Amino acid sequence: MPNRERKRDKLRWSKIYTFSCIRPTAQLDTDDAPFSLQGPGFSRVVFCNQPGFHRKKPFKYTTNIISTTKYNVLTFFPKALFEQFRRVANIYFLFTAIFSLTPLSSLDPFSMVAPLAFVIGLSMLKEGLEDWNRFIQDLKVNKRKVNIHKEDGVFGKIAWQKISVGDIVRVEKDQFFPADLLLISSSYDDGICYVETMNLDGETNLKIKRSLETTLLFEDGESFKDFKATIRCEDPNPDLYNFVGNFEYAHEVIPLNTNQILLRDSKLRNTSYIYGVAIFTGHDSKVMQNSTASPSKRSKIEKKMDHVIIILFIILSLISLISSIGFAARIKYSMIKWWYMRLPDSRGYYDPSNVAYSSLLHLVTVLILYGYLIPISLYVSIEAVKVLQAMFINKDMHMYDEETNKPAHARTSNLNEELGQIETILSDKTGTLTCNQMDFLKCSIAGVSYGMRTSEVEAAAAKLMATEISSFTENSPKSHQVARAESCLGNNDTVQQAGIKGFSFKDDRIMEGNWVQECNADTILLFFHILALCHTAIPEPNEETGSFNYEAESPDEGAFLIAAREFGFEFCKRTQSSVFIQEKYSASRQPIQREFKVLNLLEFSSKRKRMSVIVRDEEGLIFLLCKGADSIIFERLSKNGRLYEEDTAKHINEYGEAGLRTLALTYRKLDEEEYYVWNAEFVKAKTTIGSDRENMLERAADLMERELILIGATAVEDKLQKGVPQCIDKLAQAGLKIWVLTGDKIETAINIGFACSLLRQGMKQICISTTNVDLVSRDGNRIAKENILMQMDNASQMIKLEKDPHAAFALIIDGKTLAYALEDDVKKQFLNLAVDCASVICCRVSPKQKALVTRLVKEGTGKTTLAVGDGANDVGMIQEADIGVGISGVEGMQAVMASDFSIAQFRFLERLLVVHGHWCYKRIAQMICYFFYKNIAFGLTLFYFEAYTSFSGQSVYNAWYMVLFNVILTSLPVISLGTFEQDVSSEVCLQFPALYQQGSKNLFFSWYKIFGWMGNGLYSSLVVFFLCVNMFDSQQFCVGGQTADIAVIGTTMFTCIIWAVNIQIALITSHYTWIQHAFVWGSIATWYLFLLGYGMVSPIISQDAYLILMEALGPAPIFWIATGLITVACNLPYLAHVSYQRALNPMDHHVIQEIKYCNKDVEDKLMWTNEMNKAIQKTMIGFSARVDAKIRQLRSKLHRKHSSSMVS
Amino acid sequence: MMNNTSSETSGVNGSVGDGKGPKRNSKRPKYSKFTQQELPACKPILTPQWVISVFVIISAVFIPIGIASLLASRDVVEIVDRYDNDCLTNKTGSTQNEKIKYIQNSSRNKTCVRSIKILKDMNQPIYIYYELDNFYQNHRRYVKSRNDGQLRDADKEHDTEECKPENNDINGQPIVPCGLIAWSLFNDTYHFTRKNKPLKINKKGISWKSDREHKFGKNVFPKNFQKGPLIGGAKLNESIPLSEQEDLIVWMRTAALPTFRKLYGKIEVDLKENETITVVLENNYNTYSFDGKKKLVLSTTSWLGGRNDFLGIAYLTVGGICFFLATSFLIVYLIKPRKLGDPAYLSWNRTTGAQM
């Protein structure tokens, strides 16, 4: 079986490839001396094919089992419990719960222990469930099967987790590598294989790995029977791009490098199978070394809440201390005279001779009693509210993706409000912004632009312009002006038929063989030939359609080949030396197969930015076909090759404007003689030994790639995911900054930047790179760093000197440079520069760097960051950011597993942030503030009463009132506020993304607000207590002549508090559904019902509250009018404050509420849309900025047309 | 303020995607107004009109109530007579120690005669209170020192754990009623005469009915009460059940503040202006130890209770503030009117200045 496959793949790629990583091994062996591997860091020894050696020490390495869980069965309880008690408040609650079991407490122990158990139990359960999911995920990975060499050349399947170091592994096409492997041989004769490293670095183009010459012999299972070799190499480390080691085989020592290493979690592509030796397994593998432990995240609000809690603690300690000191003074100086107290107490609670001890015990008592200042119910309620909010996120139909059948999912609920405070978004590119699918959309051949379909940018510009015009000319919305605007833009049809994947081209002039009738038919033919020939792909017959699929190195190439196929030039076969193309010029004619001999292939590299093939056609003519970036190509044109330069350049500009990625296509006809001269030189370069080889090769290629003749350009749309530009636009309008971190090449990244409007023409691009620095030299590092610093200085200067306020800068930096820029002494400067730029694009960054950049932004600016990505390479970033969002639409769950929220498509981010984030932020902020208010209002009354009881620790309220206060009487309204409150509707949120700024500016949880609410609580407590006390004083309060006792005053005060806090929340709420009504009014009603019911039960249970409402308070008018007075008095300041604010200084949502309230948005549509437009932040980036530019351009065009038509 | 703006339901149509029929494994969230947060809601907002009318209404309601309360309070006739010092000075020395010695000496006669002039007509019922000052009935140690079960059920007389140190007598027998509260029962007595004719004091019905009927047992009799070496206050007649010991019942309702009055009895005849009544009192209760005051209070009652201007003043104050706020907002509204929903006040319009 392997043999047969091998025959099919009779391709020796090394003969075709020129540069890249491939070098003739024969030279390699003599060229590079083996590494001298000594000292720490290079201790690993691997005995190939002898896993037995690795079962015992000292060569026993980690197994291939991976575990990403935080706990195991044994550690879960202690560890998770420990996590819980890292919250200061929980320690306090534990403390009070323990002491409430002693007689020191004046409260019911159950009311202390139960809520604590509930809160901690709930959090631990959540924690446990999350970890269980991780465990299951690991298990799935660990149980994957792979073929390994068992014995005597026999291979058998085992689970991944059983692989040990030294095992020979056979990996089939499209499988993941189970561990870090040393490539032994592949299905190709020359031991090449293709690897997709999406999961590692997000790059989509395939990488070529090549085995050592020595091991090529081991080409089937049988041959491994007696294979033995030793590898000495570096210890496990997270560096993905370097590997140092020696391979000792048959008394030879051969150096290894990263070309032979296949990394775990990358995928074998375009190659039937490979054999490899496991070097690093499990957590030793590079990808695992790159992963960081998933941190537990807490939202900013919660962290700030901790500070507030600490302030409350201080207040609590202060009043407890005051109580205690008062108590001590009383005991010492007065209480001794109070004969009715019968001091001292036998238990020492009230011992005048030991004041210190008594007051210490008293301190504990009051600490528990005043615990209402720090409500455990706050935590319970917040948990409950967040679960409900998460439920709303999960159930939101607007965030459900039909195609992948995936709704949004809030994986952790404790970050909901953080969604409303994001300031920087760090986004992955591939799979997140783009679908990684290229669509051939337009081309320019011989100075004529073909392709009728519009790109997304153009379509949007047209649409926006049309609506704008129609809003100006109210009467005839579809005026001729609009029609003309549309005609200017060409076909406005944006509906893309579900045609061929990768091909959205539509132009009858050259489709269906019609190109033959075009005047430049020859050039067009050449153009198609270049598309079909100039690539490194392999065709794969597709049984279903009868045509071919292409295994291309990059999706661009795939798109070209598909385009060529659709134009009638189907690439059908590649052999060692030739490429075969089936040509059909028109639908009717039979296809002809043509063979082109590939003489040389000068492949693409990001440095060269071009690729060429040299082919000999059937007539024996030799052509150099070259495609490349326009900037490179245009300077290489021959004098007579510039015929179409002007037109093509114009088209390329237009395409770029429209967000397409362009390549210029050229050719050169070679004389036989000329070619042979060059080839001789080239072959010489190819066989040169030494470090000069690379340069010589390049020089040779450079020699050939000259005097080119331009024929045209292609424009490929990197298919953005649905709605991405609009979403980025909205997010930019909401004041968010977007950074793109991608593993892709710098060009690709820039292209995408254009496509999703992060970059646009006229934006000043600041590229920081190290390409022009010679890194090989001895102190290359230092030089590089200095160079980078200089570049950054210059850029900063440039930004500072910029006069134009609308000027926008874009920072583009690549991974290598980033490595320097992230060093401690440079990063500050880098960050400052990046913050000044409107958009930042980092290319070729490793997963670790993504995480580092995220950390830099998070810690350097102190702003809230959100990272969004879809692949395993984004995991670090997702975990590092304040909020990690995983895209769940595509395969691969690592990112989702690591994320806090998962959405199916990038575009749902808009709704997630602008609607849910905004709401959740406001809800939680208001809820917490209210909680502080209500508990201070309640808790302080206890303190005042203390002063009247000589600080004895007696509570004025019945124990049951106190329990119910937080549990039933005031909990539901605040939960409904936290769950259902909407300051404005979701549509308005989306129409006015500027409202999002309220969250990032943290207007609703500022210290001003917090202290305001605390002050309000203080005020209310004073009003309730002193009004009550003075009203009842000592005189009789009812017609029966009875005077007020503790129960009467306590119950009245409590009633007043219930009214005051519930009316307060009614004033805060701006959105009343029946739920809010039921809860707010229901809470007040519940209190009276409770009082009635509780008063009816046996006095043994109800104690002093027995029949209190029926007998004592109900008939007393003073009770009712006191309630009314105190309720109003408590809420007066707030009411006056908001009225004042609304009257003179309304906030945005107030005004919008009013507009909606008065139906102005319906009556005065123009104003409404105007405001919508104005609400848009002056954005430097984004679609709107782009469309603005386009509109300006169109408008001038229109104007010209208009004036000319006026004249005629 | 609560203006029911018509509910706003918009957004997704519930039937989206229903046409295809539910897919078997569809994870599409089910539509409901609740989960999509589209429940009909009223969204009241504070318009200036609402604000002003709310304040006006509050002041319009509160000021009359305040006046009515003040009038009711002024109607009440209240006579307060402090007697703790006056009843002593001529009998003992003036130092505190001498006072305490005197009060603790049970063999001395503590009768004291006071005459009270009625300043205004007092209509029956006239309530007699004793007022204690600086007496912490609300102290935690004191409040807890009782057992409700024991007071109610004869079977539970042994539940005296909480009553320490006044739980058992020297023989270990439970004290009924136990605890410091009962032990320190007030024991001054008052007798009133008018023109040498005794005024009848009705001591029935001075406690809450519920206390008599449900909290203090009909078959619970005082036992071993005030038999210890220390005698706190009044003794109880052991042949009368607790439910009829109304002085005890009133005393056992602990007061909220250190200065408190408790009902002693009712005089059920009218007293005329300028009449003088004589009070013969037994000054037994020791307030001298803790510098407390003792007062005798005679008071009529109004619909609102006793004489206390505070409620009325508070009402007038709050009403006045509301009136002030209403006028201020009215002035603000007149001077600097802001059109409702005026887009000029949106933040993005404000920063760009007066471009509009």
TrEMBL record, chain A:
Please report a single Pfam family linked to this protein: Cation_ATPase
* CDD domains assigned: P-type_ATPase_APLT_Dnf-like
Keywords in alphabetical order:
ATP-binding, Isopeptide bond, Magnesium, Membrane, Metal-binding, Nucleotide-binding, Translocase, Transmembrane, Transmembrane helix, Ubl conjugation
* Matches recorded under InterPro entries: ATPase_P-typ_cyto_dom_N, ATPase_P-typ_P_site, ATPase_P-typ_TM_dom_sf, ATPase_P-typ_transduc_dom_A_sf, HAD-like_sf, HAD_sf, P-type_ATPase_IV, P-type_ATPase_N
Which BP terms in the Gene Ontology apply to this protein?
Answer: phospholipid translocation
The source's superkingdom equals Eukaryota
Every copy of the P-type ATPase N-terminal domain together lies at 46-112
Listed transmembrane segments: 308-331, 360-382, 928-947, 959-980, 1010-1032, 1044-1067, 1079-1097, 1117-1136
**Family to which this protein belongs:** Belongs to the cation transport ATPase (P-type) (TC 3.A.3) family. Type IV subfamily.
Protein name in UniProt: Phospholipid-transporting ATPase
In which organism is this protein found? Zostera marina (Eelgrass)
The upper taxonomy is: Eukaryota, Viridiplantae, Streptophyta, Embryophyta, Tracheophyta
From TrEMBL, chain B:
Membrane-traversing stretches: 50-72, 313-335
Q: Where is the composition biased (Basic residues)?
A: 22-31
What this protein is called in its record is ALA-interacting subunit
Please verify whether the record's keywords include Transmembrane helix: yes
What cellular component GO annotations does this protein have?
Answer: endoplasmic reticulum; Golgi apparatus; plasma membrane
* Positions with biased composition (Polar residues): 1-13
Does the record carry Endoplasmic reticulum as a key word? no
Entry similarity comment:
Belongs to the CDC50/LEM3 family.
Q: Where is the composition biased (Basic and acidic residues)?
A: 146-167
- Annotated segments matching region Disordered: 1-31, 146-168
Native species: Zostera marina (Eelgrass)
Q: How does it sit in the membrane?
A: Multi-pass membrane protein
Instruction: Tell me where it resides.
Output: Membrane
Key words of the record: Membrane, Transmembrane, Transmembrane helix
